[in-house]
Amino acid sequence: MKISTIKIKTFLKKEGFYNTLSFILLVLVWKIISLLVGSEIIFPSPEDTFVSVFKLFKSSEFFLVILSSIKRGFFGFLISLVLGIIFGFLAGFNKTFRKIFEPFMIVIRTIPIIALILIALIWFKADNVPIFASFLIAFPIIYVNTVEGIRNTDIKLIQMSKIYNIRKLRVITEIYLPSLFPFLISAVSTAVGTGWKVVIAAEVLSQPKYAIGTSLQTSKIYLNINDVFAWIIIAIFIGYIFERVIRLIGNRLVKWNKDYVS
Fold first, then answer.
1. CA R_g for the chain
2. What integer pLDDT is reported at residue 90 of this predicted model?
């Protein structure tokens, strides 16, 4: 009896239990709303939507569509990560560069997402529009957090490194990078989540041949609302997987960083 009680308490403490409970409540609310609306064309039921997800999963182009959207999101994020860190380091170490570059950052941060996508439609091919839009959304997040990470580095450690004439490369790797890690991990998590949503939105407007956004738009045009909801569920699931993977990697990097510093 005691063993069973301990197992139940352990299970209740696990994050998986609360995630499962949250999912069940979400589906329940979804079902109630669909019953209240009473129209599959306006608000399909969860069971019909999951049937549509299964049908899409069995289609011949399903994985090509998914992988194409993920590829665009990955390239947009990778470009923003590399350039965000480079420009962030330049701005973090050079006050003049930071001040000169600030107006550009203000423009990028404040311009509406839809405006970015419309401009990209003029400049690029359909396949590259989501990459460009994702980059411009994620870049400021990476840049700002990189600058903040550098500026929040312990000034006493930096002064000590100057006193003992420690090489610049060693100062960067052993003082600045450990300070930067928490900021960068937070930036990556936010940038991936936001960038993924922008990729889908850009695909809806640019209409690449294989894309989740294109599939959403096509389903909407033919009033196949079950498929619209199904693609939304798929996009959410992929975004959730990204978030979990990044959180797992981030936790391990933070642990490694603490062990390394200590």
1. 23
2. 92
